[in-house]
Design goal:
Elements lengths: L5 E6 L5 H10 L5 E5 L11 H16 L3 E6 L2 H14 L4 E3 L5 H7 L4 E6 L1 H4 L2 H10 L4 E6 L3 H6 L6 H16 L4 E4 L8 H7 L5 E3 L2 H14 L11 E5 L3 H11 L6 E3 L3
Helix pairs in contact: 1-10, 2-3
Bound molecules: D-glutamic acid.
């Protein structure tokens, strides 16, 4: 594999753009290929089998480009499919992501932690194992957020409807006294400014994007695969309505980015 090959990144939709920002910041010389599986968003309400099937198909496409690593920029897809991906392609570097339970436990003052994530992530065996490993001695309250991903996908990052839905989801956690909230879905950091305006100042928000970018940097470094002295080229693909994806992407990514149809 050549070090100038791109890094592949995928999500059910545009949530992974929150992670792409961290990757670009920490690895500015890398070319990126991003896939939004928008025809099938939200993954959070889909079966594990379906998410595995999509993750395998998308990874196959990315590996054919070729890419030198794949970031599963989706907590739900990581929980459902990263084991299968690593089994299918043991030689490929897959970086997955999961709710930042360990950092939240370290950051919380009162040991009350709220987790906002998809239904799929919260019911997964991986999440149960994560809680058992790092959060046995604290109080963790979980909150699935149906409907939120769809609003973010349609670019409603500041709307009244999004505010109302977010308020409904965080209120029980705040009432229970949580001083730390984990954003356990890559879509949610995209509405961080709105969320910040709803919650009290002392409540901390924790997400995983930067940790993922750091891990990617370190793994590529170990393998001698960090790109250098290159003008990075970004490509975006979508499986759904490409115009709609482009419109929302324009709100999330600093440079104009055409979206190509994925075709499967
Ligand atoms: N962005 C994804 C995550 O991190 C999935 C959201 C969805 O499609 O339900 O979990």
């Amino acid at each position: 594999m050549h070090k100038q090959a791109a890094i592949g990144v995928f999500d059910s939709g545009l949530g992974g753009i929150s992670v792409l920002h961290d990757i670009r910041r920490l690895l500015p010389s890398e070319s990126l290929i991003y896939i939004a599986d928008s025809a099938h968003v939200p993954y959070g309400e889909k079966s594990t089998e379906f998410i595995i099937e999509r993750s395998l198909a998308i990874s196959e496409f990315l590996l054919a480009q070729p890419v030198k690593a794949i970031v599963v920029a989706c907590n739900t897809a990581t929980a459902a499919a990263v084991t299968e991906l690593r089994q299918r392609w043991p030689q490929v570097l897959f970086v997955g992501m999961e709710p930042a339970v360990k950092p939240a436990v370290l950051a919380s003052q009162n040991g009350k932690i709220g987790v906002l994530a998809t239904t799929g992530t919260l019911r997964s065996a991986r999440f149960a194992a994560l809680l058992e490993r790092f959060a046995a001695h604290v109080e963790v309250m979980t909150q699935p957020c149906p409907g939120l991903v769809e609003l973010i996908e349609s670019g409603e990052l500041q709307s009244r409807v999004t505010r109302e839905l977010l308020t409904r989801y965080v209120e029980p956690l705040l009432r229970a006294g949580c001083d730390t909230l984990i954003l356990g879905c890559t879509h949610y950091p995209l509405v961080k400014p709105l969320l910040r305006s709803i919650i009290p100042e002392h409540v901390q928000l924790i997400d995983t994007g930067e940790a993922v970018a750091r891990r990617l940097h370190s793994e590529l470094g170990k393998q001698g695969l960090l790109a250098d002295a290159q003008q990075p080229i970004d490509h975006f693909y979508g499986s759904g309505n490409v115009q709609k994806t482009e419109q929302t992407l324009a709100l999330l990514w600093p440079t104009p980015a055409p979206v190509s149809a994925l075709g499967f």
